[in-house]
Specification:
Layout: H1 2-17, H2 26-29, H3 36-46, H4 56-74, H5 76-79, H6 90-97, H7 108-120, H8 129-135, H9 140-147, H10 169-204, E1 209-210, E2 215-216
Antiparallel strand pairs: 1-2
Length: about 220
């Protein structure tokens, strides 16, 4: 509902975000004005919201996140030691600590999520969705490998074209990093393949001659 939406935005600004001074909130509070969309668009720019005025669901989600962040910042001492009600139970605490431990990999929603992630990161589709997960190296070996220090040259992400847009700057950077890491792994694999080819060629190109048999071979 348009009226409820406008009231919601005004409430967020008045009660939580408080980006404007009280005397500067008049245009935003005038929810019945024909110019309210312009006032709202200006407000989005002033709070540095990355979404367009037409993207209401995304805008609401972003403004709520901003409000929560500011609410926490104003009451950090109050919230920092808070414990969720469900975590008071020992079993629930263990479950919360390991959210993936009871994951049902056969759940249709899980499969759909894997497919969506593959499409987002432009990973080649496979009939077995678990194989696609292995592309991301979700194994203990990968965790151990990632924990090893490895020096390299710094990379300027802005100089690399991602090829698609997730609609979120942070997700775009994460996707760029994942793709660059994937490319590095492919190059490492190609190097090993080339080394294997060279080794085989060295064996083939250096045959031993057996004069007694009248032929060349090993």
């Amino acid at each position: 509902d348009e009226t409820e939406f406008r009231n919601f935005i005004v409430w967020l600004e008045d009660q939580k975000i408080r980006h404007y001074k009280i005397e500067d909130r008049g245009n935003l509070r005038n929810i019945h004005s024909d110019d309210w969309p312009k006032s709202f668009e200006k407000y989005m720019k002033d709070v540095n919201c990355p979404f367009k005025i037409q993207e209401r669901q995304e805008t609401v989600d972003w403004l709520l996140g901003l409000a929560v962040r500011l609410e926490y910042g104003d009451n950090a001492d109050k919230y920092k030691d808070s414990t969720p009600d469900g975590a008071k139970n020992t079993d629930n605490t263990a479950k919360n600590a390991e959210p993936l431990i009871n994951l049902d990999v056969n759940n249709p929603d899980f499969k759909a999520g894997v497919m969506a992630l593959a499409n987002l990161l432009q990973i080649q589709r496979h009939d077995d969705y678990l194989v696609m997960l292995k592309v991301k190296r979700l194994t203990q070996d990968a965790i151990a490998k990632a924990s090893q220090s490895k020096e390299g040259l710094p990379v300027a992400l802005e100089k690399h074209v991602l090829g698609f847009d997730t609609g979120d700057a942070v997700l775009n950077e994460a996707a760029q990093i994942l793709r660059l890491l994937h490319i590095e792994e492919l190059r490492e694999l190609q190097t090993k393949i080339n080394e294997a080819i060279v080794a085989v060629q060295a064996i083939i190109a250096d045959p031993k001659t057996d004069h007694r048999l009248g032929k060349v071979g090993r």
